[in-house]
Amino acid sequence: MSEDTGDHRLLIDCERLHCRWPVDGSGADLVVCGDLVRDGSSYCEAHHARAHVPPPWRTVSVGGAARKAAGAAVN
Length: 75
Prior knowledge:
This protein is mostly beta strands. The chain is 9% helix and 20% strand. It contains one helix and five strands, in the order βββαββ. It has one helix spanning 45-51; strands spanning 9-10, 22-24, 31-32, 59-62, 65-68. A three-stranded antiparallel sheet has the order 1-3-2, with no helix packed on it. Strands 4-5 form a two-stranded antiparallel ribbon. The longest helix is centred in the middle third of the chain and has 7 residues, at 45-51. The chain starts with 8 loop residues before the first strand and ends in a 7-residue tail after the last strand. The relative contact order is 0.17. The model has no long low-confidence stretch (mean pLDDT 80).
């Protein structure tokens, strides 16, 4: 589901089978995706994939200088 389709719903109106990816609003007026969830997730397939993407690299501190884990200097 893309975020411009009509399946959005208030979080409070969601059941266990609805994706809870926030789309708009906050608090009691929080609107979520509302599509069917992926098994074992609170999100649909598309939003589960977006939520569980590992970062492309991580920084480590070596001798006080931040460097990419692969060894290239961070600018």
